[in-house]
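sry for the spam today, last one i promise. struct tokens for design, 193 residues
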């Protein structure tokens, strides 16, 4: 990874990185990830191949940057969670908004990359990690008998599953309804006996 998410970049660097990210998102909306090439990305971004390699190791590195930028836009990326704690509900609301705002992009990506593809799994893993980091900071401050890592993993997985069901399953659910689902799932709708 050649970019450092914790370092403020110049406008020129940000513009170049954004051009490559836009090229990646445009390409993902048109074809499967495994058919995307660095040459094709450079043509779309209108930068030479050498410039691409100044900023990214390969197309996977650019993909990580794309997910990072989406998360950064919601103020939920790992570097942002270090600045303060969000409640689980606030974390959920921000991710819900991101998925809602980006639904057409995500659905176009899914059209070309099956739901069980490495690309979609990579996206889910990235945002599960981001949510995990945010939730864990909140859980660490609470007194529980269950290890905070286990609680954070459970919460992040539950949040992602709700969002997958809503956005990838194209169910029309308001934030209030989604928060009700989250509350019920995390508090245990099924009684163990």
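last one done:
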């Amino acid at each position: 990874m050649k970019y450092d998410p914790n370092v403020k970049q110049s406008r020129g660097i940000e513009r170049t990185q954004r051009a490559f990210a836009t090229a990646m998102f445009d390409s993902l909306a048109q074809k499967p990830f495994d058919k995307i090439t660095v040459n094709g990305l450079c043509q779309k971004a209108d930068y030479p191949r050498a410039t691409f390699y100044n900023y990214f190791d390969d197309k996977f590195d650019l993909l990580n940057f794309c997910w990072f930028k989406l998360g950064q836009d919601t103020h939920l990326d790992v570097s942002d969670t270090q600045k303060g704690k969000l409640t689980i509900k606030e974390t959920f609301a921000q991710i819900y908004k991101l998925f809602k705002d980006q639904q057409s992009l995500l659905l176009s990506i899914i059209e070309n990359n099956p739901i069980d593809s490495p690309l979609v799994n990579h996206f889910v893993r990235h945002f599960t990690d981001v949510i995990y980091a945010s939730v864990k900071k909140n859980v660490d401050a609470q007194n529980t008998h269950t290890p905070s890592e286990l609680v954070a993993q459970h919460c992040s997985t539950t949040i992602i599953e709700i969002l997958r069901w809503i956005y990838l399953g194209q169910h029309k659910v308001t934030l209030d309804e989604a928060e009700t689902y989250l509350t019920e799932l995390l508090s245990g709708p099924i009684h163990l006996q």
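The two ends are 49 Å apart (CA to CA). ok im logging off now
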